[in-house]
Amino acid sequence: MAAELLEKLLLQILSGDNAHIYEISRQISKAIDTQEGVSALCSLLRHQNDGIRQYACILLRKCVAKEEKWHSMHCDIKSILRKDTIQLVCTENTKPVKKSLVALIGSIARFGVNEHDWPELMNFFHEACSNSAANIRELGMWVLSLVADYATDSLLPLMPTLISLCNERLKDAEPGILFYTIKQKKFRALIPEIIRVINKLIETDETMALESLEVFDDLFEYEVPIIQPFIGSIFELLFGIMNNQSLDESLRARAATYLSWIVKRKKKLVVKQKLMDSLLDAAMKIMGEVDPDDDDDENVLPRETAVLVLSMCNNLPSNQLMPAILERVEPMLASEDPIQRRTALITLALAVEGNSEYVRKRHLQSLMRVTSQAVNDTVQSVKNGAMFMLGQMCLCLQPDISNHASDIIPFLLSLIDPQKISGKLTSDSLRAHSKVFYAIETFCENMSQQKFSPYVESVTNTLLSVLQIPSLSDSVRTYVFSSLGAVSATAGKNLAPFVEKILHYLQSYFAPSVRSEEQIRSQAQAIETLSLIVRNVLGEDDRAIIEQSARIAFEIESTASDPDQRRAIHGLWASIAKCLKTSFPVGYLERVVQSMIIALNSQEGMNRPGKGMENTMSSLADLEKEIETMEEDYDDDELTDVENPYLDEKEDACINLADIAESTGPLFAPYLEKSFKIIRDLTKSNHMFVQKAAIESISKLAVAASKLGGDESSQNAVRVLCMEVVTCLTETINNQKEKTLVTTALSSYAYLIKNAGQILVGDQRITDTSLNLVRNVLRVKLPCQVIDLETEDDEEEEEDDELLLETAGEILPALAEHLDVDTFLSYFASLSTLFDKYMKSQNMNEEKAFAIGCIAESIETLGRKLEREGKTSANLEKLVLAAKDSFLSSASDNDTDVRNNAIYGLGLLVLYGNLGPAINQEIYSTLSSLLQNESNPRCKDQIVAALARVASKIGDCLPLDSVIKTIVSSLPLEDDPVENNTCVICLARICQRANSVLPHFEELAPVLPTFFENEDMNEEGKAAVIFLLNAMGKNNPTILESLHQQFPRLRKHLN
């Protein structure tokens, strides 16, 4: 009966009965959920209709896709299924049905393949693979290749027999047999023969050769130690393919992709065997074969080759690679061939990204000259290459390149030609202008507010002038909006005079009726730019604009169907909440939260291909994809990282929801529990950036909960929630292998301790956990820090290692804030041996800089705490004295980070250490001497701040007038603007004790009001500015009145 019903239903589908497809699908799903239904499907494998046989195969795969379904199946059905599939695959003549049968055999093989489990399968391998008929031998190797993928572990005991079979077949003359033989990715002893076979396939069938190269996917990813002896031979094979112009581009591109992997994981081999020069020559030659700016998807080879060059730049020693690159590009830049010039510029741009530190310190000036000349080239493609290079320099060579702002910004603005932008643009012209806007955006957004302030007017007016052009395309408007967003993020309050004009041009894209794809993209960018303006520029006086922005968000959200639109709107809501805080419109809040929760719960874009499809039988291909996904889920829990607007929306929804929770405080309380549960679940997401956002956000929600107050019962509930966050984060830190996620979890943990420590730190378990986390990072004991010696990968991702260390170091000052000073120092002493090791590091400047910085920050936290409490600590004085010699010697270190942190520490030693006159004078003399000789702007700023700390502590023992003059003349600090707080706080302290600052008021006066608009100023710094201004008013009312006229908003701050 079941067989007849299934036959009838499948025939309806095959006849194209789409009107009842959902009902038919439901009935089929219900039928095959029973033992009788599965048995019926087995009988349909012999049906005379090809379509029904194929559907039966695929539906049976669905029945065995999950382990629990297989184990619940009757033994008789399993036995019939195993016997019949082997028999039928040998007699089936219809290729699609045969393919489905082979896939079904592979699915069943996951549950056992040995003689006891499935004797028919092993007999089939022996008989088919040695059959005299080539088509049977090919079938045998086809089935074996699939079973090897599905049932690797089950095959391990049978390896000797199977390797012998495969070796025999590698001597075969038939390409199909060779192809399926080398697809046995798990039989590593075959690697030399695999290389030989691929070379043979290249001569006979490039399509098969391309597919055969996929054997290296798993080899490179998972079996590095096993392929170690063959890396040289594999490199030779791949290099030969990439360099062979007679081969298909897709084949050469795949070879370039695998070469990138070898360069990344086997850098020592590349250097030792002197492969770098030949790789570089070949790659640069290929990059010149096709225009890298060509948007044609078929031109994949130049892009993959560019990735190879970037991989070389990221992984090979800069002191060897950069001279080799410069040696090649110099004659190319002077060539009459524009392709040569453009290739040289693209190569340099990639070199800038991969060797930023080396370039920044040694070649910045020369590359600036190259770029200046190339952007004026007569050939547009060369100009595009120059603009790409300039954009990379703006992005990667900060902060040093900011010192060239007076040359770069006017030059970039001069490249915007209104006549060439108006009307409909050619693709070449649009591409050229996109690179100009990209360079402007990257340069502006990576500058400090202080350094950018002189250029706000010129950059903004130029961008606004573009928006005035009639018939300006949506694409160009999007570029301009994006650049204005970058300007607002950097300029902050300095952009206030232009807000009205900018909103005028954004307004036209705020209509809910926007329809075309290009308009939707422009609208999303317009909303994002508005969000940045609200967040960075507007304040309490701009409530009307903020409320108008809320109405805009509300109206557009009601019709928004595009994930980028929704993502931008969610960001705007978070910006509005940051401004309005507890004044956020309650009527909007429920709708806002619900919209973000829908995004967080949505499965759109969350699954790999095939997952989450409708459970219908209308498409064989869709059904097969669904089953493959079910089988992948059975085997594969790996993190994935793909570009997907739905995932971007989910990622930003996590962050924005947490930001709104923190901003709106008690207003968010009704939504806190539900939001927390959803985001907590996403900390286990298979998508890395969603998981990262959830890890970052979960602490913010806990901190928001901790600030709600309430009775003892409420506080206990918050404590439980915070402990749940601690557990989640520590599990990630202690088990996760992805370094980026561990770093995020450490940062999130430090944030939680810093901001909710009053609830947690009373629990000894939290103190122990915190110290163990730091200790494990310092001892390199975390899973993400494990070094695979076989891969020679000990130098990879040094920047990630440095960030991991720095982030772990943030936990200690956070903990110090909530523990008794002496208690904390007793714990800190248990880490002293590890810190000493890092302080004495001869090879790793990053480690030394970290240790010095971490000790200095802990001293500052403890010192400020004692100062607030009016106490002293002999143990802190011991720590200060122990750090003194290391800080003094490191203050003249060749590495700028080490030097900077040591100088920062020296000022703190004097401020909080009670070191005595002799040592204080020694530190002051050292700082004064360093200031005379220091060339690095950031270190110079740090010396000025250190002198300010020293002067505020021992001013009576110094030539105070000279020191104050040095401090005042250096303000505002541009390269380390946060230290402006230190300088004004220390000047205010000096002013409270003596009149030494009064003679310098006239020079100080024009600087002080600017600090109110500076995003780097904290509340204590602003209070110090107010104190100094009021003191100035008492001493010289004329100066203060003049400032009121010059800075109209000043009176608001002083009242």
TrEMBL record:
InterPro entries per record: ARM-like (IPR011989), ARM-type_fold (IPR016024), Importin_beta (IPR040122), TPR_IPO4/5 (IPR057672)
Gene3D superfamilies to which the protein is assigned, alphabetical: Leucine-rich Repeat Variant (1.25.10.10)
Signal peptide limits: none
Coiled coil: 613-640
Keywords noted in UniProt: Coiled coil, Cytoplasm, Nucleus, Protein transport, Repeat, Transport
GO BP terms, alphabetized: protein import into nucleus
Pfam families: TPR_IPO5
Occurrences of domain IPO4/5-like TPR repeats (ranges): 95-237
Localization of this protein: Cytoplasm; Nucleus
Record-level GO cellular component terms: cytoplasm
Organism domain of life: Eukaryota
Transmembrane segments annotated in the record for this chain: none
Cytoplasm as UniProt keyword: yes
Record protein name field: DgyrCDS12172
